[in-house]
Structure formats: C-alpha cells, structure tokens
Write a structure and sequence with these properties.
Elements (H helix, E strand, L loop, with lengths): L6 H32 L4 H28 L8 H6 L1 H11 L7 H28 L8 H32 L6 H25 L13 H9 L2 H30 L6 H24 L4 H22 L4 H37 L4 H29 L10 H21 L1 H4 L6 H16 L1
Helix pairs in contact: 1-6, 1-7, 1-9, 2-5, 2-13, 4-5, 4-7, 5-13, 6-7, 6-10, 6-12, 9-12, 9-13, 9-14, 10-12, 11-12, 11-14, 12-16
C-alpha cells in the first residue's frame, strides 16, 4: 500500500502551480495588448510573432520530455529542473515586457527573441512540474488529490492575475504605461520563481524509475502506441481553446464592449468562483461516475453556458458575469477530469509497453497546451484583422459584436468539438482497476 503524500507537500505543489500560472496568465492576458497598444506593433504582425514562436517552442516540448525521462540524479528525474530553471524564466518574463525604445525593426526582433526564449524556459519548468504528480505516489486516489490541489493552485494563480493584474498595472501608472508592465513582470516573475523553487526543494519522487535505459524510439512509443493518450490529447487541443481564446480577447472585450478595463476584476471573480467550485466538485463525482462520462457532460453544459449570454445579450454585465461563472465551473471540471485521465494513460503505458514515460507524456501535453495557445492567438489576430481593429480608437458596433462572438460562441463550439475525440478514449473503469492491480502485483515482485 502506497503511503499518503504529506499535506504540506501537497500544499507546496499547489503553491508552485499558483506561481507558475500567475506567470502564464500574465503573459497570456497582456503580451498581445502590450505589443499592439504600447509597442505599436500591428495586430496581425504581433499575432504572427506569438504564433510562430509558440509553434517553434511547442515542437521542442517532446524533446524536453525525453530529456527528463533519461534524467537520473541525486534529486530525482524532475526536481533538478525545478531547482535551477525558475530564476531564468523570471528574467525572460521581464525581458518580454521591457520597452527598449528602439526602431520598429529592433522592437520586432527583441519581441520575437524574448517570447521564444520565454516559451522554451517555461517548458523547462512546466514539464517537470506536472510530471512530478505522476511519481509522488502509486496510489491513484492520492495522485488525483495531488493533481486537484495543483489545479486549484493553478486556478488561483490565474485568478490572482485576472483580478489583480489590472490593479497592479494601475498602481504603476495604468494599462497604457510601459513601465507598469515592466514593474508588474518583475514582481510576478520573482513570486513564480520562488514558488517553483520551493516545490523542487520540498517534494519527493516516490515512484522509482526503471534502471533500464529507454531508447529514443521506445520513448516515442509511449505516445504513438498509446491510443487513449492520443485521443485525450486531441480533445485537450480543442478544449484548451476555450480559456485560451477568452484570456487573449478578455482585455479587448472589457475595454471595447463594456468600456472599462476595470471590469477585468469582475471577470476574474466569476472565474475563481466557477473554476474552483468545478474543481472541488469533480473528485467526488469521479468516485461515482466514469471519467469519460463526466468529461462529456461537462462539455455539453459548458457550451450551453457560453451560448446563452450571447443569445440573451451581453450588455447586462451582472447577468453575463453569472454565465461566465457557470461556464468556468464546467471548465474547472474538464480540467480535473482530463488531468486524471492523463495519469491513467501513463499507467496504461507501463502496463502495455513496460515503461511509464511520464516526461514525454506531460511534455506532449505541454506541446498541446502551447499549440492551443498559438491557435488561440492566431484566431484572435485574424478576428481583430477581420473586424478592422485599430488601437485606441472608439469602438464600433461591428467591433463590439465581433468581440462578443469571439468571447462566447467560439468557446461554445470548442466545448462541443472536444467531445468528438474523447468518444474514442477506450480505458474503461473496469480496465483501469485491472491495470492498477496488475501494476501493483508486478512492482511487488
């Protein structure tokens, strides 16, 4: 029987995800706006920079996963990266929001380089941080709880930025002041670096990796011979667009539809209420219902919660915020269910192929997350172009209607589309129990 993971260790992991998601959310919410409205980079060009850099970086993620799977050190497979990389990602974040005041060409070069560097360093922290959840215990219940607390911490980190990010900018001069972004990036970068470092210091890896050397080809088999993983990744690619689109368009929406950047705080409150309640509600549901069924129902109801405010009209801020909260509730549910299913695919890999490959599985998940982010930014860039968006200009009815369409109907479609791949996810509850039994037996030999 696997020992329980200490509460303090779970809280430290949750804190590490809180800091990491503060960093990610600040970048997701403000980098495009910073490029277009402060550095003066055209919206289409800025989107191309972010999309191209994200795709290049995402393609390097599986390599990072294979590196961690081959890592053997006194600190374990994953913890070394959490000890030595956090300070670098903090510095890269500051560089992304530094206005050097040069020519347009120099600005484009620095923006492209800094964002690409940031994405690569983020991977060095992100892949090991999430992979850690698969080696803290052999008990699936403990791992699900560990992941749930991590997701709650991550959601709180996103909420801190959603609610407090604009307040931080206002404290340093407002959303039209370049120094405000720089000082905010410094503060958030330091908090993130410290929280991730403490996670590396205070957690333990309890699932001992195999002494057998895994070849490059075998490592890749963890992905392409794992049908449940492939179907889950396809679904995650789509479901991640829900929050990706909303994060990228949110500031434009509250500024040009509701007329006040301060409404970002209220959106953040609806996010925290919805996401946290959804995450808290999920583990009890998973003890009673199949994970696949919970995921599908959450997607259907999440889609309905997105469509209704668009049909009823989104100029009533209070009503719209309530619907935001409901849709975020179901987003929170899909987040916990999908991560729990991801852990099951690692057990499936060990059961079928003889090795777990936690690093490449989580790095592939990171690849999907980044690719979804790139697609989100590409959608936003194309939408702003189609809507003839011009920074700092009065909002037209066409722009407001278009932003509402992107904010509500596109996420609704993504919720529904994410159901299609998951229909082919073939780890049943009965098979999952059998896999765990077989693995426990083989480990005891």
């Amino acid at each position: 029987m696997s020992a329980k993971v200490p509460v303090a260790e779970k809280l430290v992991f949750s804190g590490g995800l809180l800091g990491q998601n503060m960093l990610y959310s600040f970048m997701s919410m403000y980098i495009l706006f910073f490029y277009t409205d402060l550095l003066g980079i055209p919206a289409t060009t800025a989107s191309v920079i972010l999309v191209a850099a994200s795709i290049i970086d995402a393609c390097l993620d599986p390599l990072m996963g294979m590196i961690t799977d081959k890592t053997r050190s006194r600190w374990g497979k994953f913890r070394p990266y959490l000890l030595f990389a956090p300070c670098l990602i903090a510095l890269a974040t500051v560089l992304c929001f530094w206005d050097f005041g040069g020519s347009r060409t120099l600005t484009l070069v620095i923006a492209t380089f800094s964002y690409l560097l940031w994405g690569m360093l983020y991977t060095v922290c992100d892949t090991p941080l999430w992979a850690l959840s698969s080696v803290v215990s052999t008990d699936p219940g403990e791992r699900t709880l560990f992941v749930t607390l991590g997701k709650i911490g991550g959601t709180l980190g996103a909420v801190v930025i959603t609610i407090g990010g604009i307040q931080l900018l206002l404290a340093f001069g407002g959303e039209r002041n370049t120094q405000a972004y720089l000082y905010s990036a410094i503060i958030i970068g330091v908090i993130a670096a410290l929280s991730i470092f403490l996670t590396g210091m205070l957690t333990k890896e309890r699932v001992v990796p195999s002494a057998e050397k895994i070849s490059f080809r075998q490592n890749l088999q963890t992905v392409y011979k794992n049908k449940p993983l492939l179907t889950l990744l396809a679904s995650l690619l789509i479901i991640n667009l829900v929050n990706g689109i909303r994060q990228s368009i949110q500031l434009y929406y509250v500024v040009y539809v509701w007329g006040d950047a301060g409404y970002a705080t209220q959106v953040g409150i609806s996010l925290v209420a919805g996401m946290l309640l959804g995450m808290i509600a999920t583990p009890p549901l998973l003890r009673r219902f199949a994970k696949k069924k919970v995921f599908i129902i959450s997607c259907i109801l999440g889609s309905v919660a997105c469509i209704l405010p668009y049909l009823l009209g989104d100029h009533n801020v209070l009503n719209t915020l309530v619907f935001f909260g409901v849709s975020f509730f179901f987003s929170g549910m899909t987040t916990i269910v999908s991560t729990s299913m991801l852990l099951d695919t690692i057990d499936y890999s060990e059961w079928k192929l003889g090795f777990r490959g936690e690093g490449i599985v989580f790095s592939t998940n990171t690849f999907i997350t980044k690719f979804s982010g790139a697609v989100s930014r590409m959608i936003i860039g194309a939408s702003l172009g189609l809507l003839s968006y011009v920074e700092n200009q009065p909002a037209t009815p066409q722009l407001q209607h278009g932003l509402s369409f992107v904010m509500f109907l596109l996420p609704a479609l993504c919720f529904l589309a994410a159901i299609l791949p998951i229909l082919f996810y073939n780890i049943t509850e009965k098979q999952r129990v059998q896999i765990l039994s077989d693995l426990n037996h083989s480990r005891s030999l």
